[in-house]
Amino acid sequence: MTAPTLVTGATGFVGSAVARILHDRGHSLRLMVRKGSDLRNIAELSAEIVDGDLLRPDTFERAVKGCRYVFHVAADYRLWVPDPAPMMTANVEGTRLLMRAALNARVERIVYCSSVAALGLIGDGSIADETTPIREHAVIGVYKRSKYRAEQEVLRLIREQSLPAVIVNPSTPVGPRDIKPTPTGQMILDCAAGRMPAYVDTGVNIVHVDDVAIGHALALEQGKIGEKYILGGENFLLHDLFDMVSRIAHVAPPRIRLSQEVIWPVAVVSEWLSRAFGVTPRVTREMLAMSRKKMFFSSDKAKRELGYTPRPAYQAVEDAITWFRHNGFLKS
Predict the structure, then answer these.
(1) Per the structure, how many domains does the chain have?
(2) What are the angstrom distances between the C-alpha of 126 and each of 83, 167, 314?
């Protein structure tokens, strides 16, 4: 019997795409899933389902037992949390303990899904890569700090305990099966629905979620242990991205560019309302602080060493809008 490949976070946006690609490549899948998770993204996959949660490390030994490979994709991904402690525990301590469990189980190779959030950022429109310097004090936002610390834990285990891990750093995935949706998916959905009257001056790197998944598989097959690989696509100024979304969705694009000073009071009020009523704010002070730097990245290393070939960002956005329409998120 073929030893299974474990995928954590397999019900999520990126995790389900990774699971599908591995299934197509002939892997025998074991999917670690939290109790009560929405299983729609993996409903048609032939896989063993095991109970597991980054906040419950006692579930890790059973999940990794007998596995040849581990793809750790699970993470608490939110741009707003009233209490940062659970996110830090899940993303940092959960990752560390899962890596230790994989070491103890003598897993042959691990692909750890980090994020460009854990990498250095130039921010002025220049393009960053895996070697761009970073210091934790410059990392803005709880989610980004958690991913930075988690990646540092993985790197430490590689150095000190020969953890057989390859690290991938996806940029901003877009595409089908974004069931929550993710913060970026919600932004595209709002723009496609004509609910985006204005924008801030920033920049992002857009990549198709299925290309991110293929990049994970290539990291397993071609990647070097201890190396990091950015899995990105194309760099866009936000107003250019919204123009593209609007053309695909046949709506008017947002034309009003708002300054940080105008939006800052709105963010303060949004955070207060969120704490008072338990709703997710559309804008926070951390989001605005992050937007001051253009998040532009290069995937040249992954292209050169892994054979990574991402498709145009237009296709990612088109596939996302089509999926949102077909699944009732967006009216035709």
Answers:
(1) 1
(2) 33, 23, 22
Residues 39-89: tens digit of each pLDDT: 999 999 999 999 999 999 999 999 999 999 999 999 999 877 888 999 999
Domain CATH code at residue 36: 3.40.50.720
CA distance linking residue 116 with residue 206, whole number of Å: 12
Record the tokens describing residue 126, joined without a space.
């220049």
Q: How many CB atoms lie within 10 A of CB 265?
A: 9
Q: Give the whole-angstrom CA distance, residue 264 versus residue 273.
A: 14
Res. 290 pLDDT band, cuts 50 70 90: low
**How many CB atoms are closer than 10 A to CB 313?**
23
Q: Which of helix, strand or coil describes residue 112?
A: strand
Report which residue type is found at 33. V
Could you tell me the residue range of the domain that residue 108 belongs to? Answer: 5-174+207-232
Given a cut of 90, whether residue 207 has pLDDT beyond it is yes
- Report the alpha-carbon distance of residue 75 to residue 137 in Å, rounded: 22
Q: Comparing C-alpha atoms, which of 184, 186, 162, 160 is closest to residue 172?
A: 184
Q: Which residues pair with 5 in a beta bridge?
A: 29, 69
| DSSP β-bridge partners for residue 240 | none
Question: Is residue 105 situated within a structural domain?
Answer: yes
Residue from 1, 4, 50 nearest 27 by CA: 4
Short-list 34, 31, 9, CA closest to 112: 9
Whether 326 maps to a domain, the answer reads: no
Please count the other Cβ atoms lying within 10 Å of the Cβ belonging to residue 274: 17
CA-nearest of 43, 105, 114 to 72 is: 114
In a domain, 99, yes or no: yes
Asked whether the whole model's pTM tops 0.90, one would answer: yes
Tens-place pLDDT, residues 119-170: 998 878 899 999 999 988 878 889 999 999 999 999 999 999 999 999 999 9
H-run or E-run covering 102: helix 94-104
- Give the pairing of strands 198-199 and 228-231: unpaired
Task: Measure the CA dihedral 168/174/178/183, to 10°.
Answer: 90
322 located within any domain: no
